[in-house]
Amino acid sequence: MTLDETKQKVFAAIQSLLEEDKGVVVVGETKLIGDGRVMTSLKLVELCLELEDLATEIGFVFDWTSEAAMSKSRSMFRTAGALAEEFYAQMVVNP
């Protein structure tokens, strides 16, 4: 799976969890944490569980529990793009 294909899958997973009334289209810069975020903490956990399932289907283990994940400045959850890139990086390292 390419980085672009990974982004499409991650963005689609995010989009599916957003409330319909938000009218948000998920792009690379869509914020997942902090001011202006598009999802609640509960929805973010649901997203992580969905990505774990996707990773299992692909054949690797997605680790979203690192200390860096919880850092506002370094977190893979800063944006949808950052999350997709981290998912892809873990997939490539652990095929």
Comma- or semicolon-separated keywords:
95 residues; 0% strand; globular; 49% helix
Structural overview:
With 95 residues, this protein is mainly alpha-helical. The protein is built from three helices and no strands. Helix 1 runs antiparallel to helix 2 and helix 1 packs across helix 3. The longest helix has 18 residues. The termini are close together. The model has no long low-confidence stretch (mean pLDDT 88).
Brief write-up:
The protein is mainly alpha-helical and 95 residues long. 49% of the residues lie in helices and 0% in strands. It is built from 3 helices and no strands.
List the helices and strands and how they pair.
Layout: H1 3-17, H2 41-58, H3 80-93
Global structural class? mainly alpha
Which descriptor suits the 3D outline? globular
How much of the residues is beta strand, in percent? Answer: under 5%
Largest sheet: none
The overall strand count is 0
Radius of gyration: 12 Å
Compute the average pLDDT. 88
The parts where pLDDT drops under 50 for at least 5 residues are none
Helix content: 40-55%
Number of helices: 3
Query: What is the helix/strand order?
Result: HHH
Ends distance: 11 Å
